[in-house]
Design goal:
alpha/beta; 15 helices; five-stranded antiparallel sheet; seven-stranded mixed sheet
């Protein structure tokens, strides 16, 4: 059983003791802390409004009722979207002129997990500073609830799926007519969550000829590990081949990550979701790109080819967004299949990602595997070292940095070292005594060897 309190949100497992899991008491406490921050910012100048949405998890209705009641008890109005997606809630916050938003989702975690993801008035994740303040308020339980005649109102609103889809259809780079002319046949793995509602509705609106949905019952009983990785998508691959489909689509439970399967059942590669979408966007408008520094270098190569500049960011969506804003990027995201289209909204959004990818594919002579063949083949090796809690991680990183001081280094987020055409990225986990070691090369064995060399260096420094 786990409860992880971080500056980016609160997540934990359902069931167990208060303070050790995401218990009802903890849900109320952290929701009250969030509401207190919003009320403090308004300083009594107006009535506060919060948008709420959830993915398809079993615990969603229970957690939602606790959050709604707590916000109402603070005197905060709630616009409850019900079963929704992370990007849909992000879009709804500014459209509702709300002061913030809460998304109930543990993203790719298994079914026993849930979480409170917290947004500001722009529909973007709250800052690290606000996150720290929230944890302090929750620890002190410094809340003040509203009297009976000033309780918050609760409004149910199920219109935002259509509003999200309409906004995608109106986006200038989405080519609905070109997509419809291709008569695509698509298989979707909706992993028993809200993607089963939103993705088929979007594909129909885009004119996709035939959509086959796998794991389409929104039960929260995930048919497989919900993270959209190759080992978990074997059913999708086999059905794409069996049905002679043009492609397969997989999303995670809250529909902010996206990956594709080729017509022969092979993986397009989650790292290449962003690469392909960026390639399409950059053919339509010139500009810069951003991804976190644990993502493939293929994005940098595509960006330079189109005459733009590429900028790496620290890992984490809030860091990618900050870098995109500072560098005026026209497209960005993360190598885990997270697409961020800044003039649509600053958040990972699988739905706009699907529309842009299909627009790109519709303009190609060949199929999706042919499209993948346009991009270089790089391999990322992902590893970790578990450490004792008293391990001096900063000292280890300093010694590694000194050892490789003659090579190009980036210490914005841990330490990234470039070896000619290859790289390795070392990061300290925010929640565990773990060092993550990601490396990339043009051959899988080279990527693994680089990671193993750095893992040995780390052990020698301990």
């Amino acid at each position: 059983m786990s409860l992880i309190k971080s500056i980016s949100g609160i997540r934990g497992t359902i069931g167990g003791k208060t303070g050790e899991t995401l218990s009802p008491v903890d849900v109320v406490k952290f929701t009250a802390a969030y509401g207190t921050i919003l009320k403090k910012a308004a300083n009594g100048s107006k009535k506060i409004k919060v948008v709420l949405g959830r993915d398809g998890r079993i615990s969603g209705p229970m957690i939602s009722s606790l959050v709604t009641a707590t916000l109402s008890g603070l005197g905060i109005d709630v616009v409850d979207l019900g079963p929704s997606t992370t990007p849909t809630v992000e879009i709804a916050v500014p459209l509702e002129k709300a002061d913030g938003g809460i998304i109930l989702t543990a993203s790719h975690n298994p079914k026993e997990w849930n979480a409170l993801k917290l947004l500001n008035s722009d529909g973007e994740f709250i800052s690290a500073e606000l996150g720290r303040e929230l944890l302090e308020i929750a620890a002190a339980e410094n809340f003040e609830f509203a009297p009976v005649d000033k309780l918050g109102k609760i409004e149910q609103n199920d219109t935002y799926m259509q509003k999200h889809i309409d906004a995608i259809l109106a986006y200038p780079l989405v080519q609905k007519e070109a997509i419809a002319k291709k008569h695509f046949k698509v298989v979707v793995d909706a992993i028993n969550s809200t993607g089963a509602i939103f993705v088929p509705a979007l594909l129909k609106a885009l004119g996709v000829a035939e959509v086959i949905v796998l794991n389409g019952d929104v039960t929260g009983n995930f048919a497989h590990n919900p993270e959209p990785l190759p080992d978990h998508l074997t059913e999708l691959s086999s059905v794409v081949v069996k049905e002679k489909a043009d492609l397969g689509i997989a999303v995670d439970p809250d529909v902010d990550r996206l990956c594709f399967v080729n017509e022969d059942g092979s993986m397009f590669g989650e790292e290449y979701t962003l690469v392909a979408v960026a390639d399409y966007v950059l053919t339509q408008r010139k500009g810069n790109t951003v991804s976190n520094m644990s993502s493939t270098k293929a994005l940098k190569e595509i960006t330079l080819k189109h005459g733009g500049a590429y900028y790496p960011s620290a890992v984490g969506e809030v860091n990618v967004v900050a870098k995109m804003k500072s560098m005026d990027a026209v497209i960005g995201g993360e190598g885990n299949g997270g697409i961020i289209v800044p003039d649509f909204h600053y958040g990972r959004d699988a739905l706009i990602g699907i529309a842009l990818f299909l627009s790109h594919l519709a303009n190609q002579k060949g199929g999706i595997k042919s499209l993948r063949g346009m991009y270089p083949d790089y391999f990322i090796s992902k590893n970790k070292i578990e450490l004792d809690k008293d391990t001096d991680l900063p000292s280890i990183f300093a010694r590694i940095k000194e050892k490789y001081s003659k090579l190009p280094l980036n210490d914005e987020d841990g330490l990234k070292i470039e070896f000619n055409e290859d790289w390795v990225h070392l990061r300290m986990s925010n929640t565990e005594p773990i060092i993550r070691i990601y490396s990339e090369s043009d051959f899988e064995v080279k990527a693994r060897n680089i990671a193993q060399k750095l893992m040995q260096d780390i052990k020698e420094c301990m």
